[in-house]
Design goal:
With 340 residues, the chain is of the alpha/beta class. It has 14 helices and 10 strands. Strands 1, 2, 3, 4, 5, 6, 7, 8, 9 and 10 form a 10-stranded mixed β-sheet that branches. 35% of the residues are buried.
Length: 340
Amino acid sequence: MAEVSIIVPVYQAEKYVGQCIESILAQTFTDFELILADDGSKDRSGQICDEYALKDKRVRVLHQTNSGVAAARNNGISNAGGSYVCFVDADDRVEPTMLEHCLVCIKENGADVLRHGHIVELWQDGKCAHTEKKSAPDFAKALTHAQIADEMERFWQNCSNYVWNYFFKKEVVEDICFPDIKVSEDHIFVLEALERCEKICFLAEEPYHYCMRMGSTANRWQETGIACQIEMVGACRHFMDSFAMEAERKAKLMANVILNAYSYAIYLLCFPQCTQTFTQKAATIQEVRKTLQVDRYIQYAAYDGLSAGDRMKRRLICKRREKLLLRLGPIFMRVVRKAS
């Protein structure tokens, strides 16, 4: 039985999945199984996966009817036989030493979960236009569950939303399911895993290349996107409640999550594909503000580290000027898309 199971959900990725698979098969640590969960792709993605399975016995392909990325990942977990599990997206790639270094680090620290860094690659017109390193936190080599509460301010600031930023012991995640939502499903999964783990360690490297492309799920109109944000905030609250901390400290920690989720809801409503009238958008966003309890958290709003644009949006939100953002957002998006 392979020591590591690598799960790759695949859907309509024929342009990228070959490069992704090649980067995984080039690992210096070779005792792994690669599970390619084809989510009913209509392009050549499934065929490409099958071709690799014929060439390398470590590759297994799971074909399913189109059910979404959450179902594909859940299918992968159910079929994983390794002692450790990690996830890679089909349009991303990894460094050859990723598995080797993750295994050494997680074993040396006796941890259940490892968090590593990544490199963001912004792709436009088929070319990588910009790269940026996103390192794992360096405030500790490892933290026990109790120490996470002690270090929560710094830990929460560096708690990645992306499941591919982590390397898990199989026993921690084998009975956790990704929720069937379109956005933030991996954030919710990660929070539940971190809530369960006894110890997390950190790898001071960036072995994962996150290839960001316009038109991805997070960068387009989603009918259920706002509901997904509300569910994600609920998961964050549940995570915080699992630690013994005073209420005001939790509120301060949650403030950034709440305000970011609310800002993202406004962002979604500004997409040209959103068919709501302005009056409907205004009513929707006010309901979201009430559901997320934004007014409770604006007293804790922080601006450090935000771009000039994000600072402006946050100030307008705190002053209850969302309608201005709803007016200007669609205009700004049209200008940006025309320029690009």
